[in-house]
Design a protein that fits this description.
With about 240 residues, the protein is an all-alpha fold. It has one domain (about 1-240): Orthogonal Bundle (Arp2/3 complex 21 kDa subunit ARPC3). About 80% of the residues lie in helices and about 0% in strands. The protein has nine helices and two strands. The chain has helices at about 1-10, 10-40, 50-65, 85-95, 95-115, 120-145, 150-180, 185-195, 205-240, and strands at about 70, 80. The protein has a two-stranded antiparallel sheet with strand order 1-2. Helix 2 runs parallel beside helix 6 (about 120-145) and helix 4 (about 85-95) packs across helix 9. The chain starts with a helix and ends with a helix.
Length: about 240
């Protein structure tokens, strides 16, 4: 706990910008959810008491899954796959985009309290932003029309955005940020990719993110989407009312 507060103090400006991004994403989610609710004539609160309790439960499950991340053979070991977006996507389909962004934030907050940060919050910001790039578009699409075909389309579009945005975000921000943070030349990070993946060209950040990052994001989005589509309908009555239909 003391280490976490020390990290916050040492990176106060970055933490404030992190919080500003969270607020901005949440505001976008609320506006889009209000538009969907107006279209569907839904009048219940965006974040009611029961919703908050369920959001807390799904966030804890997501945090636990986040801790059990693992590397894949085609990417350097500092890239790891986790399935923390699974409970969040299920909860977001049930309770809306604002709930999804809230769960992403609580997941990261709980992870910081349990494990702290080893990346001066850079990796934590990346996890939040990239996670939202998946669950936010998928949940917004589903919020406007809640049927099976829309759910499938929402998952496909969310996975596509996750893959494209996550790949670009790594190239433009994340890899250069890690290079500065660890005082390691960017070429050295890229060399770690070419060491495990022959498709990574020496010194090419584009080939690195296409060969290492894009497949990881695609696998994550596709697997989370498939499982969500399989389990959401049977779980939906229990999630929303606490009783089986």
């Amino acid at each position: 706990m003391n280490d976490l507060f020390k990290s916050v103090a040492e990176n106060a400006l970055y933490v404030l910008s992190f919080l500003a991004i969270i607020v901005a994403v949440f505001a976008v989610a609320v506006l889009l959810e209000k538009a969907a609710r107006k279209k569907n004539d839904v009048r219940e609160p965006i974040l009611g008491t029961r919703k908050m309790a369920m959001i807390g439960m799904f966030s804890v499950i997501a945090m636990i899954l986040h801790l059990f991340d693992f590397p894949l053979p085609f990417a350097p070991a500092f890239y790891k796959l986790d399935f923390s977006e699974l409970p969040i996507l299920v909860g977001t389909f049930a309770f809306g985009p604002a709930a999804g962004v809230t769960m992403e934030f609580i997941k990261i907050l709980l992870k910081l309290f349990v494990k702290g940060t080893s990346t001066a919050f850079v990796g934590d910001l990346a996890n939040f932003v990239i996670g939202c790039s998946f669950i936010l578009p998928a949940s917004v699409i589903y919020a406007f029309r809640k049927d099976k075909k829309t759910a499938i389309a929402a998952c496909i579009i969310g996975t596509a955005i996750l893959t494209v945005f996550g790949t670009a975000f790594n190239a433009v921000y994340l890899l250069p940020a890690f290079s500065r943070l660890y005082g390691m030349p960017l070429d050295q990070l890229l060399a770690m990719g070419s060491a495990v993946n022959p498709r990574v060209k020496e010194g090419s950040i584009i080939s690195f993110v296409i060969a290492c990052v894009a497949p990881l994001n695609l696998i994550k989005g596709a697997s989370v989407s498939i499982v969500t589509l399989l389990i959401y309908k049977p779980l939906s009555p229990i999630i929303k009312t606490g009783h089986r239909a």
